[in-house]
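A reminder from the course coordinator: this example appears on the midterm review sheet, so study it carefully.

Given structure:
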């Protein structure tokens, strides 16, 4: 109960995400390393480790990489994001597309299309922002052996996959060098389950280029356990 109250308090405070629709300046590099602990001892004991990167190709084009590794599952996604519209107001809009692969119980190769809208705003905690990021993935099933091959459905056609995601993020600079964030992540898999997870995090500035992140997350729909998250942000 205390955890849910904490999550709710942070997520109801207007706050925002490290990614979102804000493009990286040309030549700027952002790196995020994180590890999320397993929810229960002996269950998915390796937890989840992730690497996220963004590089500014031009003032409007950003190249991204998203890698993840856990017990019996690995994911990889490379994407391009383009900022559209005016870049001098409080609101931002961007669209992205990419290709990815996922191993595990249901391996697949897929294409991704997404959007991101964000807006800076004032909050009781300090300057803040809001980001809304929908995403659609469509792909084909792969075999679990190596090298992977395409998988046929029972009717002899290619086994296809599809899912929709929506991330809602709020963030605020509570004081110089300290950011608080809350995020609701939802996913609907076609012919599968719907999941939702709530995360609250604090990000502390360390030095000129680095930040440390400490967070806690819990499922609000679907299976899962409460987990702790530790991460590092680096900007060059």
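Designed residues:
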């Amino acid at each position: 109960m205390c955890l849910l109250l904490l999550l709710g308090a942070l997520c109801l405070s207007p706050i925002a995400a490290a990614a979102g629709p804000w493009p990286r300046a040309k030549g700027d590099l952002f790196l995020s390393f994180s590890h999320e602990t397993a929810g229960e001892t002996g269950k998915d004991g390796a937890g989840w480790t992730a690497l996220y990167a963004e590089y500014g190709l031009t003032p409007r084009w950003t190249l991204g990489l998203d890698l993840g590794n856990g017990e019996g599952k690995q994911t990889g996604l490379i994407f391009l994001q383009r900022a559209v519209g005016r870049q001098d107001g409080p609101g931002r809009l961007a669209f992205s597309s990419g290709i990815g692969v996922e191993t595990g119980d249901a391996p697949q190769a897929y294409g991704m299309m997404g959007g991101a809208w964000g807006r800076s705003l004032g909050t009781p905690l300090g300057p803040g922002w809001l980001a809304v990021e929908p995403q659609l993935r469509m792909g084909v099933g792969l075999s679990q052996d190596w090298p992977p091959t395409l998988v046929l459905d029972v009717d002899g056609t290619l086994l296809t996959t599809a899912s929709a995601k929506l991330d809602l993020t709020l963030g605020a600079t509570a004081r110089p060098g300290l950011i608080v964030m809350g995020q609701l992540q939802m996913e609907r898999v076609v012919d599968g389950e719907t999941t939702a997870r709530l995360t609250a995090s604090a990000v502390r500035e360390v030095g000129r280029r680095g930040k440390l992140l400490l967070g806690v997350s819990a499922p609000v729909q679907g299976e899962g356990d409460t987990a702790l998250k530790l991460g590092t942000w680096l900007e060059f």
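The two ends are 40 Å apart (CA to CA). Residues 33 and 105 are 25 Å apart (CA to CA).
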